[in-house]
Design a protein that fits this description.
globular; 0% helix; mainly beta; six-stranded mixed β-sheet; single chain
């Protein structure tokens, strides 16, 4: 089973940018459909963005035009570039993936990493 480790979170002011990274433990990552998910306090985990092994992308309406997901299969890593950050983007961000050709919903996964905290505040 592939494991994922998220990094790159932090405290940023509204309007700022961050780039999150998700490193996979195995080289078969290149055939995985990957997604970034987030969970804010008191809320359910939600899909933020996803990318198939072919590079097709999907975004939540709330982040379209601000966030960009990408992958580097040679480095077994998927990224989430976040710009124009808003306080409502504050959450713990997680990545996950599977072999299916469609981006997974949070309920599709039973195992999660520790995530990385993103806090948007002045």
């Amino acid at each position: 089973q592939v494991q994922f480790v998220e990094s790159g979170g932090g405290l940023v002011q509204p309007g700022g940018s961050l780039r999150l990274s998700c490193a996979a433990s195995r080289s078969i990552f290149n055939i995985y459909t990957m997604g970034w998910y987030r969970q804010a306090p008191g809320k359910q985990r939600e899909l933020v963005a996803g990318i198939t092994r072919g590079g097709s992308t999907k975004y939540a309406d709330s982040v379209k035009g601000r966030f960009t997901i990408s992958r580097d299969n040679a480095k077994n890593t998927v990224y989430l570039q976040m710009t124009s950050l808003k306080p409502e983007d504050t959450a713990v961000y997680y990545c996950n993936g599977h072999l299916l050709p469609v981006v997974g919903n949070p309920t599709d996964f039973t195992s999660w990493g520790q995530g990385t905290q993103v806090t948007v505040s002045s």
